[in-house]
Inverse folding.
């Protein structure tokens, strides 16, 4: 599902996409590897007739735009990764694998707790509930397959990304900037203040300002 809208005072064209398994797009059964999402985006760009784009993705979307830049360098001018899960400690990986298993078994409690932990104690409760409702509405098999795709992503392949890249972490950062810099030495790091994992929803002014500054200076 694709949507286009002109929202910038400068006339920048913004195209948003419901990835496979998300929103109004089809939700087929089967694996959801990161590479397939990236190929979907490349296909849409070709079909719509876009020139090189600045690809922006939040969370798993950040991983997808990284893979997109690595696999389709001719289609992308720069990428913005908003709090992407690129690096997993053994403990965090074990928690997520247990959550996937519970989701596949029809138990949404671990997934609910996982979503709650993405917010800060000071986060807006209504927003948290809205995000949780949307995320829990995903079919369990699709949700589990999508998370499994992130866990299986070959992050060292990020070295193939040669375009300017911005990483916007949440508070506190879910990954130390150095852990990403090992894979992308030229990455530009930023961090929002007063927002958790969904910082693009909690503090959009901060996120937008940093993206605009990144584009002015690096793209």
């Amino acid at each position: 599902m694709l949507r286009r809208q002109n929202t910038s005072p400068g006339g920048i064209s913004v195209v948003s996409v419901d990835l496979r398994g998300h929103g109004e797009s089809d939700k087929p059964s089967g694996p959801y590897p990161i590479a397939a999402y990236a190929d979907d985006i490349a296909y849409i760009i070709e079909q719509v007739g876009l020139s090189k784009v600045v690809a922006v993705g939040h969370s798993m979307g950040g991983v997808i735009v990284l893979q997109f830049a690595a696999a389709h360098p001719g289609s992308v001018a720069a990428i913005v990764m908003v709090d992407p899960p690129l690096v997993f400690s053994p403990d965090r990986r074990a928690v997520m694998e247990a959550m996937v298993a519970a989701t596949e078994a029809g138990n949404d409690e671990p997934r609910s707790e996982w979503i709650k932990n993405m917010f800060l104690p000071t986060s807006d409760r209504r927003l948290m509930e809205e995000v949780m409702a949307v995320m829990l509405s995903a079919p369990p098999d699709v949700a589990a397959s999508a998370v499994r795709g992130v866990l299986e992503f070959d992050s060292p392949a990020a070295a193939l990304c040669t375009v300017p890249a911005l990483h916007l972490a949440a508070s506190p950062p879910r990954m130390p900037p150095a852990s990403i810099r090992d894979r992308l030495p030229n990455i530009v790091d930023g961090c929002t203040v007063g927002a958790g994992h969904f910082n693009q929803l909690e503090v959009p002014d901060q996120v937008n300002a940093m993206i605009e500054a990144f584009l002015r200076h690096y793209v």
